[in-house]
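B12-binding domain-containing protein
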Amino acid sequence: MDVQHEILAHHFLQGDEQGAEEYIKTLLEKHPRAYLYEDIITPAMYYIGELWERNEISVADEHLATAICDFVLSKLHSESGLVSRRHQKNFKAMLFGVEEEQHYIGLKMVADTFKNHGWRVRYLGPDLPLEHSFTQIQKYRPDVIGISAALPYRLKTIKRLLERFSQLEWNPLIMIGGRIVKKYDLKEFESEHVMVVKDMDHLKRWFNEGREETINETS
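C-alpha cells:
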C-alpha cells in the first residue's frame, strides 16, 4: 500500500496510537501541517467512512479510528506550543457541530488552525442543540461562528441556525464546513456574512489573503 492517507487510516483502524503518531511526525518532516490536515488526515477519515458505508468495517471500528485520530491530533496540538500573548489577536471564534451531528475531527483541525493564527477559540464539540449554541454565542460574542455537518438531512438545521444568527446585532461571519460541503452545492447559503468553507486549503487561503482583517469592517 503506497497511498499515504490509507496507510494512516489503517493505523487508526488498528488502534495503533504509536504507529499513527510516528507516521504523522515523519510526514511533518517533509510537509507543513496544513498539508497534513487537508491531504492526509481528512482523506483518511473519509476513506474510513467509505469503508463503513460499504460494510467493510463496523461502527465500533469507525469509533476506534476516530478516537485514535482524536488522540493524535490532541498530542500534536499540545506539542506545537501556544501562540505567545504578544502575537495573540483579539479575534474570537466559536466552533461546533450542528444538532445530532456526531463527526468532529474536521472541527478540531479547524480549531487548531485558528489557534495557530492567534485567535481565541471556543470549541464546543459535536451535536450542539440550537438553543444551547445561541446562548453560548450571545455570551462569547465571537467574530466567527463555525458550524459543521456531514449529512444532507442537516440542511434544515443549518437553515434554522443561519436564521437565528442573522438576528445577532454584531453580524459575525458564519463559516459552514464539513463533509456536506464536498457533496452538495451550498451556494444558496453564501452571503456577505456567510462563507462556505470547501476544505482546509480554502480556510488557509482566507487567512493568507488577510480576509480576517476585514471582519470588523463588515460587522
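The chain has ten helices and five strands.
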